């Protein structure tokens, strides 16, 4: 896939939507592409994450282990989905397993690349902060819904 197509794909990702094309070009240029065959695992739950992935082609099944120890399908990640975004800024473990449902291709954005972007372009840090704050607000709203079930 051409660099311009990668830039277009990245611009459609919520986290990168407000980042200018010149900065997206640097991310796309420094990122790596990885191809997956159907059934191939991209990453496993509870393993250290040192990068994020953007799905460029195909679909990935997302699953995690439930309380009973069984694998539970959460859904599918399709083109334009950003997986493990916090891994670009902090050492975290994967919260789920991702397996290719069919031929798939992902763009790997490693932590050193993204941190370099944050250092060179501090305004990107504001975008990331806003995204994390929005995610936390969504999480809190979900917790409020769950808590209301227990208080009734």
Overview of this protein structure:
The chain is an alpha+beta fold and 152 residues long. It has a single domain, classed as Jelly Rolls (Sandwich), CATH 2.60.120.10. The chain has four helices and ten strands, in the order H-H-E-E-E-E-E-E-E-E-E-E-H-H. The protein has helices at 3-11, 21-30, 111-120, 122-151, and strands at residues 32-36, 41-43, 48-49, 51-57, 60-65, 71-77, 82-83, 92-93, 97-100, 104-110. The strands form three sheets. A four-stranded antiparallel beta sheet has the order 1-10-4-7. Helix 1 (3-11) packs across helix 2 (21-30) and helix 3 crosses helix 4 (122-151). The radius of gyration is 17 Å and the shape is globular. The model has no long low-confidence stretch (mean pLDDT 88).
Low-confidence stretches: none
- The sequence of SSEs as H and E is HHEEEEEEEEEEHH
CATH superfamily: Jelly Rolls
General form: globular
Total helix count?
Answer: 4
Q: What brief labels describe this structure?
A:
Jelly Rolls, four-stranded antiparallel β-sheet, alpha+beta, single chain, 152 residues
Concise account of the structure shown:
This protein has helices at 3-11, 21-30, 111-120, 122-151; strands spanning 32-36, 41-43, 48-49, 51-57, 60-65, 71-77, 82-83, 92-93, 97-100, 104-110. By secondary structure, it is an alpha+beta fold.
């Amino acid at each position: 896939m051409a660099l311009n197509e990668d830039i277009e794909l990245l611009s459609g990702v919520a986290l990168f939507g407000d980042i200018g094309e010149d900065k997206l070009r640097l991310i796309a240029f420094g990122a790596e592409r990885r191809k997956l065959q159907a059934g191939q695992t991209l990453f496993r739950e509870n393993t250290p994450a040192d990068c994020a992935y953007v799905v460029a082609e195909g679909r990935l099944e997302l699953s995690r282990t439930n309380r009973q120890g069984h694998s539970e399908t959460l859904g599918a990640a399709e083109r334009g989905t950003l997986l493990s975004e916090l891994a670009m800024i902090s050492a975290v473990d994967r919260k789920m397993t991702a397996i290719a449902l069919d031929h798939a291709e992902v763009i790997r954005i490693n932590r050193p690349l993204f941190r370099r972007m944050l250092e060179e372009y501090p305004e990107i840090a504001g975008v990331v902060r806003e995204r994390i704050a929005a995610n936390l607000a969504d999480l809190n709203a979900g917790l409020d819904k769950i808590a209301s079930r227990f208080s009734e």
